[in-house]
Amino acid sequence: MRWFAFNGDADGICSMVQWGLVHGLEGNTVTGVKRDIELLSKIVPESGDEIICMDISLARNHSRARELCERGFKITWFDHHLAGEPIDGLEAHIDTSSNVCTAKIVENFLRVKSDWAQVALHGDGLSVHSTKPEFTELGELLNYNGYGADLDDLHFHPDVLMRLCLESKTPEKFLQTPAFETLKKGFADDMRNVESIKEVDGIYLLPNEAWARRVVGVMAHRINSIGPGPHVIAIDKGHTLQVSLRGDEGIGEICSMFGGGGRATAGGIDALPKEEITALMNEVNSRRSA
Ligand SMILES: [Mn+2]
């Protein structure tokens, strides 16, 4: 039996579609929302099984991957995220170059040129490296579908969406399907909801609803493009706030002061107690240009 584990975003889906078009997808598939990375823990192989992983970080699945290799399972890994130490016996096709996505790695491995790899580049925010701008929207919508707190938030289970893409065979044909229309309309509706959210006391506060959990990333990205920030976008979780912070510098540092983390320009705090919002805003405001 073969097992596939793939990220539920555009890149993971396009990687699987390419594999499926060449070799078929007989076996079990394991996937989840985009942020659900530790998928190897959901695989329960039996003797003689093999495992193929697409677009999930080996570093984040390292101990489980090592354990499965030691037990003799054949594992093949395609990815462009952090890998960690090499694992004996694991076949790794991992390239962390900033101009590739997993679907490009899979395309090279299969030696079959595919427009799905072009779609994936757009999905991963690597449009500048794609030769097919006509697939920008499709890449972004497949990527958008993967965002949410859990699978119930998504328009399509990523496995269902992957199989719909596979059935279509080409991105052009998928663009003609009702599934594409559903994604397009879903995104437009979510963005219309976003427009109703205004900044109040320095915060864009979103309700804890599925649409908000789906678009908070896109919204943060768009707000960040209007000025240096720091910008505060938060989902109201009752006693706590799920905070996304964006800006030009020092963002991860601010977040870490409140139990979160991140990079220089993007960060988050999973559960900020509401009584700490004043302290957070004091810190943010001291860094906002007058
Ligand atoms: Mn990717």
Describe this structure in words.
The chain is of the alpha/beta class. It folds into two domains: 185 residues, no CATH class; 90 residues, Diaminopimelate Epimerase, Chain A, domain 1 (Roll), CATH 3.10.310.30. Helix content is 40%, strand content 18%. It has eleven helices and eleven strands. Strands 6-7-8-9-11-10 form a six-stranded mixed β-sheet, with helices on both faces. It has a five-stranded parallel β-sheet with strand order 2-1-3-4-5, with helices on both faces. Strand 6 and strand 7 form a beta hairpin. Helix 5 packs across helix 8. The longest helix has 18 residues. 40% of the residues are buried. The mean pLDDT is 95.
Biggest sheet: strands, sense, closure? Answer: 6 strands, mixed
The rounded Rg comes to 20 Å
Number of domains: 2
State the share of residues found in helices, binned by percent.
Answer: 40-55%
Total E-strand runs: 11
What small molecules accompany the polymer chains? Answer: manganese (II) ion
Distance between the termini: 62 Å
Rounded mean pLDDT is 95
Order of helices and strands: EHEEHEEHHHHHHEEHEEHEEH
